[in-house]
Design a protein that fits this description.
Layout lengths: L6 H64 L10 H15 L1 H38 L6 H32 L4 H7 L2 H15 L2 H29 L4 H10 L6 H15 L1 E2 L1 H10 L7 H7 L1 E2 L1 H14 L3 E10 L5 E11 L4 E5 L16 H4 E3 L2
Parallel strand pairs: 1-2
Antiparallel strand pairs: 3-4, 3-6, 4-5
Helix pairs in contact: 1-2, 1-3, 1-4, 2-3, 2-7, 4-6, 9-12, 11-12
Length: 375
């Protein structure tokens, strides 16, 4: 299909044609009133967005301080479903700035928009009715043509919105196959070059990818927090085992290493789980409780069990995902841990999954050469 006839071009043309036909059928009376409603609602929505932006910028730091002062901690032990949601949400609001800003912005926007429509709504309604009565009459060729022109204007607005969404997609995913197809549309090229780019300048092409990467980090952090909350629900057997294993450790480092050796030597790698996923794309999700009971798991299961047991004895531990060396020059999906040693004032890496393969994987030199964490 020729570039100017691809789906993107046809979609933009269809929006304009449909809007023109719709406007012509309505006639000037219906279309003008519809346009007036759309424009007034749009103005109020824009005012709500701008007001919300400034309000949230002002209150977000205060809200963060308030949450920090509350000192909400994820409890160790049995946690119900609603408490899991609560602790994930509240600690996410506290620890992830973009997530906090987004939630506050949405709430602020909904409230301010309702207030603006409540105040301005009656006046706009009276104006719309009076405007509608003043231009009522039998449809004429002129009114039909006027309605068609108004419809084209509305279609142009819709087409610009579609262009903007496509432009954002192309900016965020430049290597995607869909991006190449979008860019092959002559209408898209002209709209992006002559309308979108001059209007937005460098805001989209330079800033949006940075914001998106930051949002990805917040999203990954929320997923990590979800596991932290879920894995806090551990049995008394795990609690007792963690205490017994670390009973001979005096420092954080000694306790962390004792747990590393215990998890790495007690849990066997579950090759059946790997085969099930590779052959049938079935992923057998399991909790630290499952891993502790079955004594089987893969890297993420080793890491989640280690983190859960570490927290029981007062160690701050987290699960790290990324790529691990296969020993043959390649890398594959992998997970391991980092634990904070208060006496060293530093996070150190360890990999309990690789204990059975030999070697020292408790904070060894050049750990980063065999483990590449997600950005």
């Amino acid at each position: 299909m020729a570039p100017y006839l691809n789906v993107v071009s046809l979609l933009l043309i269809a929006i304009l044609v449909f809007s023109a036909i719709q406007g012509g059928r309505r006639g000037a009376t219906g279309s003008v009133r519809h346009l007036a409603v759309m424009m007034s609602s749009g103005v109020l929505s824009i005012l709500a967005i701008v007001a919300s932006w400034y309000i949230v910028q002002a209150i977000s730091p205060w809200f963060y301080g308030w949450l920090v002062a509350k000192n909400v901690q994820i409890p160790v032990g049995e946690v119900g479903v609603w408490k899991q949601v609560y602790y994930t949400f509240v600690t996410g609001l506290r620890d992830f700035s973009l997530f906090r800003f987004s939630i506050l912005f949405i709430i602020s926007y909904l409230i301010i928009k309702q207030i603006l429509f409540f105040i301005a709504g009656p006046m706009l309604e009276r104006w719309h009715h009076s405007r509608g009565r003043s231009i009522q009459g039998s449809p004429t060729t002129f009114s039909t043509m006027t309605g068609g022109l108004v419809g084209i204007l509305g279609g142009a607005v819709r087409a610009l919105i579609v262009l903007f969404v496509l432009f954002m997609f192309v900016t965020l995913f430049p290597q995607n196959q869909v991006t190449s197809y979008i860019q092959s549309s002559t209408l898209y090229q002209k709209g992006a070059e002559q309308i979108i780019q001059p209007f937005t300048g460098k805001m989209i092409t330079e800033r949006l990818p940075v914001i998106t990467r930051a949002m990805e980090q917040d999203f990954k952090g929320l997923l990590q927090r979800k596991y932290e909350v879920l894995d806090a629900n551990i049995s008394p057997d795990i609690v007792q085992a963690a205490k017994d294993v670390t009973s001979k450790g005096d420092t954080d480092e000694e306790k962390a290493k004792l747990l590393y050796q215990w998890v790495g030597s007690r849990v066997q790698y579950d090759w059946d789980k790997v085969k099930l996923y590779e052959d049938q794309k079935i992923w057998k999700e399991q909790t630290p409780e499952d891993t502790f009971s079955s004594r089987k798991g893969v890297c993420i299961d080793y890491s989640r069990l280690y983190a859960a047991m570490a927290r029981v004895v007062g160690l701050d531990a987290k699960v790290i995902t990324g790529l691990g060396s296969d020993g043959k020059g390649g890398y594959g999906a992998h997970a391991w841990n980092e634990v904070y040693l208060k006496e060293n004032k530093a996070w150190i890496p360890l990999d309990s999954t690789w204990v059975s393969s030999g070697g020292n994987w408790f904070n060894p030199p050049n750990f980063e050469k065999t483990h590449i964490a997600d950005a």
